[in-house]
Design brief:
Blueprint: H1 2-17, H2 19-24, H3 31-37, H4 49-75, H5 78-84, H6 89-123, H7 133-156, H8 160-170
Helix pairs in contact: 1-6, 3-4, 3-6, 4-6, 4-7, 4-8, 6-7, 7-8
C-alpha cells in the first residue's frame, strides 16, 4: 500500500506540473457540445448522445494522460529502473491508472454539466438529460478502461513510436 501511495503522489505531482497539457486537453470537454449543436449529422440518436459523448470524453482524457505519463518515464529511463526494483508490479500499474482515471472522470463530469446547460439552451425542454446512475458509473468505468488499456499497452510494447501511435488510435 505504501508503494501505491508513493506512485499516486508522484503521478499527481507530474500531472500538476504539466498543467499546460491538461489545459490543452480541455478542448475535449467541448466535443459533446459540438455534436449536440451540429444535429443534422445524427450518427447517434439525440436521446442517447449525452451518455455516448460523455463516456468518450472520459475514455480519451484518461487514456491520453496515462499514456503521456508512461512515455515521459520511458524517455527519462525511469520506468526501467522502477520495474527492475523489488517493487510489486501491481502497485506500479495501480499507481499509474488511478490518477488518470480520476482526472478523466472529472473532465467527464464537467462535460456533462456543460452538455446539460447547452442542451437546455439549444433545445429547451425538448431533450431532457437526466443524470442517472448510468451517467455516474459508466464514465468512471470507461475512464478506468481507457487508462488501464493505455498503461498495459505501454508496459507490453517497448517501441516509443508504436506507443505514440497506439495512444492516438486508442484515445
Amino acid at each position: 500500500m505504501n508503494y501505491i501511495n508513493a506512485f499516486l503522489h508522484k503521478e499527481l505531482w507530474e500531472i500538476k506540473s504539466s498543467w499546460k497539457k491538461l489545459m490543452w486537453m480541455s478542448y475535449i470537454i467541448l466535443l459533446p457540445l459540438i455534436f449536440l449543436y451540429n444535429s443534422r449529422f445524427e450518427i447517434i440518436p439525440k436521446q442517447m448522445q449525452p451518455i455516448y459523448l460523455v463516456t468518450l470524453v472520459a475514455f480519451a482524457v484518461s487514456g491520453q494522460i496515462s499514456s503521456n505519463s508512461l512515455i515521459r518515464e520511458k524517455n527519462y529511463k525511469t520506468l526501467d529502473i522502477i520495474l527492475c526494483k523489488n517493487i510489486p508490479k501491481y502497485s506500479v500499474v495501480i499507481g499509474k491508472i488511478l490518477p488518470s482515471t480520476l482526472i478523466g472522470y472529472i473532465y467527464c463530469l464537467v462535460s456533462l454539466c456543460l452538455l446539460k446547460v447547452a442542451s437546455f439552451a439549444i433545445y429547451g425542454n425538448q431533450i431532457k438529460i437526466e443524470v442517472t446512475q448510468l451517467f455516474i458509473i459508466l464514465p468512471l468505468a470507461i475512464a478506468y478502461l481507457g487508462s488501464s488499456a493505455s498503461v498495459l499497452a505501454n508496459l507490453i510494447i517497448r517501441d516509443e513510436r508504436v506507443i505514440s501511435l497506439m495512444s492516438l488510435i486508442i484515445c
